[in-house]
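Input.
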Amino acid sequence: MSEPIASYLIVSLPEATDSEEWLKSNLNGGLSPVFKFKLDDFQIGTLDSLVQESEDLAKLDQQLGGSVSKIVDILSSVDPASSKSGGSSNSANLVLGKPACNYVERFSWNSSKYRLDRPIKQLVGVIANEAIALDNDVRTAYSSYQTAKSNYLAADRKKNGDLSIKSLHDIVKPEHFVLNSEHLSTVLIAVPKTLNSDFKSSYETLTEFVIPRSATVVATDNEYTLYAVTLFTKYQQEFINASREHKWHPRTDFTYSEEVLNEMRKEFDLTRATESKVRNDLLRLAKTAYSDIFSAWFHIKAIRIYVESVLRYGLPPSFECSLIKFDKTTGKNIGKAKKDLIEKYGYFGGQAFDKKGDGSNLHEFASLVDTDYEPFVLYEVEII
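Output.
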């Protein structure tokens, strides 16, 4: 799992609190930068509909955040050389051409793409459909890459493994085989070097009609000697079975054929080229998807904060939203910052707030907004 680059608290409070100045001066000893998180005015339906939209937004917020994390993990696993700090890389984490943290700290609604004259439910649908489709594309591409990589590794094992498993197309020659014979066959046996003496003393009597002194050394490596043995075709399977009992390794996967050999020579290069192409396609798609899904995620988050704030503080909308940054040096203070915020603004206590300060009957909606209920709108976000 990738480590976060930075963590943020996003807090929405009624405008009358003058919260921004207090956050900058007092929260975390003034060490945590505070940014204004601009919220546009959205087309609000009924308060009842906002409660349902709040539940849907919470699920979608979590889903898109998970998609972003998954893409970062994919980028780190596919291109580990570009990863820094436990899988996070500034070069990979670009959102619309900006580092992710810069995008968050300067977030503004993309009104040209997501028109604000649309109802909230319609906006959410458009944003969600685009992001989920991209997420599915990345998952499909990653699955294709894993298949291509598996094929390449299998071909690589054949090319570079020991003589019991490796491809033999660059090793065998026609003279190692009895070809075009109606009655005779040649069997290839990879014999562990520790069992060479056993093989030489017993292979001729392993079955009937093994051609005496027919075993010839085809190749050797650090672990095995590859022999070619000629015998009558009728006893070939019996000879193979008996070889396995002696813990030798018959290469039954290999049949001499010029056509097959040519295909095997092409296999490694083809799987390597396919793996490289699919990998590059995946990296391009994942980086694009990271940017677009991250942007969609924060547009959904902006709507969610707006909806929650209306449900908490009432109508007309009158609240301000701040983004508080905690980097690696100050991240451990995020829990204390939450406590300080609750100590300072806990008097809202879940009751709606208006400019007169006398509350309203919206507190019944506020209690439905979040499972982890806070006395004001507060979210923690990790950027990876």
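The longest strand covers residues 6-14.
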